[in-house]
Amino acid sequence: MTKTTNNLDSCEAFAQLTALQPVGNLATLLTPQRVATAQVAMDDGMWFNYAAKAVDEPILQALQQLADEQQVVSQYRQLLDGAVMNGSEQRMVLHHLTRGQLGADVVHGGTSLRDFYQQQLDRIAAFCVQVHNGEVRGGSGERFTRVCQIGIGGSDLGPRAMYLALAHGQRSQKQLKLEASFISNVDPDDAGQVLAELPLSRTLFILVSKSGTTQETLTNESLVREALRSQELDPARHMVAVTSETSPLAQSKGFLTSFYMDDFVGGRFSSTSAVGAAVLMLAFGETVVKEFLAGAHQQDCLALNPNVDENPALLDALIGVYERNVLGYPATAVLPYSQALSRFPAHLQQLDMESNGKSVNRQGQAVRYATGPVVFGEAGTNGQHSFYQLLHQGTDRIPLQFIGFLREQGGSDRVIQGSTSQQKLNANLMAQIVAFAKGRRHKEANKVFVGQRPSSLIYAAQLTPRVLGSLLAHFENKVMFQGFLWNINSFDQEGVQLGKMLTQQVLGGRVEDDALDAYCRLFQS
Ligand SMILES: O=P(O)(O)OC[C@H]1O[C@H](O)[C@H](O)[C@@H](O)[C@@H]1O
User: Fold this and answer.
1) Is the entire prediction scored with pTM above 0.90?
2) pLDDT tens figures, 260-280
3) How far is the CA of 181 from the centre of ligand 1 (A)?
4) Of 261, 79, 278, 40, which Cα lies nearest the Cα of 160?
5) Ligand 1 centroid – CA 225 distance (Å)
6) In terms of CATH architecture, what is 99-289?
7) Please, are residues 39 and 47 in contact by the beta-carbon 8 Å criterion?
8) What are the positions of the active site (predicted)?
C-alpha cells in the first residue's frame, strides 16, 4: 500500500510531533539572532521569516519527518506530471502549468497542455495590442479606455486582488493602459453602481466563467448587454469571454472573441490562466503579466525542494498544520501591510477555505482531525483599529501571517512629523509582531497582554509584478501541501452545491423544505 493515502493521525511523525514539548515561552524564543536568521529565501529579495512562530529545532525536525513521511514533494511532482490529483472529479490539477513547465509534458486529447495555456496567453496578448492601439474599438467607433470583468468566486477574487495590487504602481509609472472595474455579486446594486460609473461606449467587458453556467455571472451578463443596448451599442462589439472549452459559453455567439482555460485549472487557482491574464494584460500589458507569471513559476520551482528550510511554502504549510492539529488554533489572519493587497485576504479566503474546508479524506472516509482553518484578514494598519483587540487579548490564540514591503509602490512618500508614511506603516508592522509575541505585564488585568501569539512575516523590497506572482504561488503551494498532509482533496468544492440547489428550488417555486418555505414567506412582503 502506498504511503500517499495516509491520514495525518496515522503518521509516525505526527505522533512524535504531538509528543514533543511545545515552545514554553515565545517571548524568550524571539531573540535578535533568531529574528535575523529564522527565515527562508523566496528569491527576488523576498523572505519567509518565521522567527515569531512557536517552533524550535526539535519541532522543525519532526515537521521535516512529517513532510517526508507524507511524501508531499513527491505528490507535488506527481501533480506536475499530470496525475489525477482531483480524484472525486477525476481531473488533473494543472495550474502550475499555466506559468511554466516543471514536470513531464502533459498531453490531453493529443494536445500538449503547456502549449495550450501558452497559446491562450499569446492570443490574449495579440488581442490586447489591438485594443491598446485602437484597431479594436467599441460599437460607436471609440477607443476602449476601460475594462470591466464580470465573474464571481475564482473568476473574480484572484484577478481583482491581482489588479488592485498592481494598479497604483502601474498608474504612477504611467504604465496603466486601461483602468479595470469588476462586477461579481448578483445583488443588482453591484452591477447598477459599476455600470452607472462606466463610460459604456469606451468599455470592454470580459465575461469570465469557467463553467459557463454560474447564475450570478450570467445574470450580470444580461444586465450589461441590456445597458449597452440601451445606449445603442452592439454588445457583441463590447464583450469577450473567458471560459473552459467544454462549457456552454464556449459555443455561444455574441462576443468579440473568446479565450480558453480548461477543467484542469480550478477556479481559485486560475489567476495565472486566461482568467487572470485577460484583465491584467488589458490593464497593464504583456510585459507586466510575464513578470507576474515568472514570479509564480519561481515559487513553483522552490516548492520542489524536499528540505523544509529551503522550501518556504512547505515550511509555512507544516507550521500551519502544527498550529492547527497540535496546538489546536482555529483560525489564521492574513495581515498585509500594503494597501495594494487590500483584496488579497479575500482571495486567500477562497483559496484556502474552499480548498481545505473538508471533512473526508481522499478515500471518502471521515477524518478525525481538524483540517483548514478559518482565514480572514485586512490590510494593516486598518485591521489594528478593528479586530486586533481580539487578536491581542481575546480567548482564542490566532496565528498571524504578516506581509510587508520596504518601499511603497507610488513614489509619493514624504516626511510628516519626523517620519514618512511608509516608515510609520512598517513601524506598526514590526511593533505588532513583537507585541503579539511578547505581550506586556500590567497591574490592571484589562491592560495585560499575555503575548505568546505567533506570527510569520513575508517581506520584500517592493510589491512588483514578479513579487506579486511569488506571493500568489506561495499561498497556492502552501494550501496544496496542507491538503497532502491532511490527506484531503483540495481541488473539489462540493460545499457550494447544496445552497445552489435550494436556491433553484426557491426561484422555480418548487420548495420542498418547510423551513425554507417559511423563509420564502418572510421575503414575500
Ligand atoms: O468560473 P465559474 O464557473 O463561473 O465559477 C465561479 C465560482 O463558483 C463556484 O460556485 C465555485 O465554488 C467556485 O470555485 C468558482 O470559482
Assistant:
1) yes
2) 999 999 999 999 999 999 999
3) 19
4) 278
5) 21
6) 3-Layer(aba) Sandwich (3.40)
7) yes
8) 354, 385, 500
